[in-house]
Amino acid sequence: MKFLVINGPNLNMLGKREKGIYGERTIDDLKDYIKKECKIIDENIVVDFFQSNHEGDIIDKIHEANTLYDGIVINPGAFTHYSYAIYDAIMSVQLDVVEVHISNVHKREEFRQKSVTAKACIGQISGFGFDSYILGINALIKNKG
Ligand code: DQA
């Protein structure tokens, strides 16, 4: 199985930004953690990574992924809360997509409690730190049956 992990805006700043919320670890630490945990789930899982601060680049990547992957785990960052274009991109492909968040967006500012992108996804996982991504990959696997 082959999965794509997409990280949206400001997630390249992990380890530097709001450490009290997002922790001390960097995006490279996140990638290493996901690769390590995927190996434990199944030696044969391939996982690719993409991060961008630009909405259009994320949309292009979702379109490209359509025939290349078995599913996407996406943390759209702040685009979660207002990007109908990313919602439409997810709706445009046949892929299973799980939305993840490092922090629990439901116990933060009111604007974070609304996700426009989650409506296009199988589901949303929020608040488990880096493990949100692992739970997301497990959700994709289980959903495939
Ligand atoms: C985030 C939550 C978003 O509200 C925020 O804009 C982010 C990160 C999270 O992973 O907790 O950039 O998606």
From TrEMBL:
Molecular-function annotations in GO: 3-dehydroquinate dehydratase activity
Keywords for this protein: Amino-acid biosynthesis, Aromatic amino acid biosynthesis, Lyase
Gene3D superfamilies, sorted: Dehydroquinase, class II
Organism domain of life: Bacteria
Pathway: Metabolic intermediate biosynthesis; chorismate biosynthesis; chorismate from D-erythrose 4-phosphate and phosphoenolpyruvate: step 3/7
Site (Transition state stabilizer): 17
Catalytic activity: 3-dehydroquinate = 3-dehydroshikimate + H2O
GO biological process: amino acid biosynthetic process; aromatic amino acid family biosynthetic process; chorismate biosynthetic process; quinate catabolic process
Its EC number(s): 4.2.1.10
Enzyme class: lyase
Record carries keyword Lyase: yes
Entry-linked InterPro entries: DHquinase_II, DHquinase_II_CS, DHquinase_II_sf
Active site positions, chain numbering: 22, 101
Binding site for substrate: 75, 81, 88, 102-103, 112
Similarity comment: Belongs to the type-II 3-dehydroquinase family.
Function: Catalyzes a trans-dehydration via an enolate intermediate.
Subunit structure: Homododecamer.
Name this protein carries in UniProt: 3-dehydroquinate dehydratase
Lineage, highest ranks first: Bacteria, Bacillati, Bacillota, Clostridia, Peptostreptococcales
